[in-house]
Design brief:
It is a single chain. The protein is α+β, with helices and mostly antiparallel strands and about 90 residues long. It has a domain of about 60 residues. Helices cover about 45% and strands about 25% of the residues. The chain has a three-stranded antiparallel sheet, with helices on one face. It is elongated. The chain starts with a helix and ends with a helix.
């Protein structure tokens, strides 16, 4: 998938996350994965109370567990890998 398309798909959620942070409505919350039952830390936007005076919680991102430098390739490394794959495909 082209990089621009991949990131574009996440842009609306990222913008919502930024607005929540600017408005002071972003929290680190304790959630549980439905698929595994594992407890995770999640960046969550907090909506204003509804008609029943209940807050809405919108989970946006699961925090990385462990050392992100060991778990992820950096954007520059990804770019280099993609360029290498494109060159290999042209051969």
């Amino acid at each position: 998938m082209p990089k621009s398309t991949f990131l574009k798909d996440f842009t609306p959620n990222f913008e919502t996350l930024l607005r929540a942070a600017q408005d002071g409505n972003l929290a680190l919350t304790h959630c549980r994965m439905k698929s595994t039952g594992k407890d995770v830390a999640v960046l969550t936007a907090i909506n204003s109370p509804d008609a029943n005076d209940e807050m809405g919680f919108v989970p946006f991102a699961v925090m990385i567990e462990g050392d992100p430098y060991e778990l992820l390739f950096s954007p520059l490394e990804v770019e280099a890998q993609d360029e290498e794959a494109e060159l290999a495909a042209k051969k």
